[in-house]
Design a protein that fits this description.
The structure holds 2 protein chains of 2 kinds. The relative contact order of chain A is 0.34. Helix content of chain A is about 0%, strand content about 55%. In chain A, the strands form 2 sheets. In chain A, strands 2, 4, 5, 6, 9, 10 and 11 form a 7-stranded mixed sheet that branches. Chain A is mainly beta. Helix content of chain B is about 0%, strand content about 50%. In chain B, strand 9 and strand 10 form a beta hairpin. Classes of the chains: A mainly beta, B mainly beta. Chains A and B meet through strand 5, strand 9 and strand 10 of A and strand 4 and strand 5 of B.
Chain lengths: ~110, ~110
């Protein structure tokens, strides 16, 4: 089974802190994604990566950056956390099999910025 | 706005009844659709998918119907059980080299014993 793990389930940080969220997948997937999930807004794509050291902005990249140094690991970075970044963060990965783009999700990290 | 949306934000059913969750999409170029289930405190979990060249696909207790004429997708759950209580999302993808999924906001299904 595909397994996507995230470094923390719950995280509490202070405004201005630098925050790292880590995601690891064990199925050799090329594509990895970071989303945030907020009530009433659904899942919104922050960044995605289709290969090592490659990244593309999603729909809401402002205030975030990412790092993909190894194929299995995709990190989301909040350079200076703000209260409006309090959210559930979900990582996903996918293997492009022809036209099928099913994404497998991690359990999520609930981040609170005080 | 969202290219994928849901008609009802909440659905409450009795255990044993059939459930139908609906989704509308606006991008006629979308080629692939997925339904996800998200239980409280967990990440979304794949349920079933369908390609645009199909109008129906069945899984275990679940059926997805695709009506391309009206850009409508539905998920039918047979004999709904308490363990089916969750938020259900539809997602669309344009296929090919486009990796991105566009998600609907979700429907909360509550199953009453």
């Amino acid at each position: 089974d595909v397994k996507v793990t995230q470094s923390s389930r719950y995280l509490v940080k202070r405004t201005g802190e630098k925050v790292f969220l880590e995601c690891v997948q064990d199925m050799d997937h090329e594509n990895m994604f970071w989303y945030r999930q907020d009530p009433g807004l659904g899942l919104r794509l922050i960044y995605f990566s289709y290969d090592v050291k490659m990244k593309e902005k999603g729909d809401i990249p402002e205030g975030y950056s990412v790092s993909r140094e190894k194929k299995e690991r995709f990190s989301l970075i909040l350079e200076s956390a703000s209260t409006n970044q309090t959210s559930m963060y979900l990582c996903a990965s996918s293997l492009l099999q022809g036209d099928f783009n099913e994404q497998f999700f991690g359990p999520g990290t609930r981040l609170t910025v005080l | 706005g969202e290219s994928v949306g849901l008609h009802l934000p909440t659905l409450s059913v009795q255990e044993g009844d059939n459930s139908i969750i609906n989704c509308a999409y606006s991008n006629s170029a979308s080629d692939y659709f997925i339904w996800y289930k998200q239980e409280s405190g967990k990440g979304p979990q794949f349920i079933i998918d369908i390609r645009s060249n199909m109008d129906k696909r069945q899984g275990q207790r679940v059926t997805v119907l695709l009506n391309k004429t009206v850009k409508h997708l539905s998920l039918q759950i047979a004999a709904t059980q308490p363990g089916d209580s969750a938020v259900y999302f539809c997602a669309e993808n344009m296929g090919g080299s486009n990796y991105k999924l566009t998600f609907g906001k979700g429907t909360l299904l509550t199953v009453n014993p």
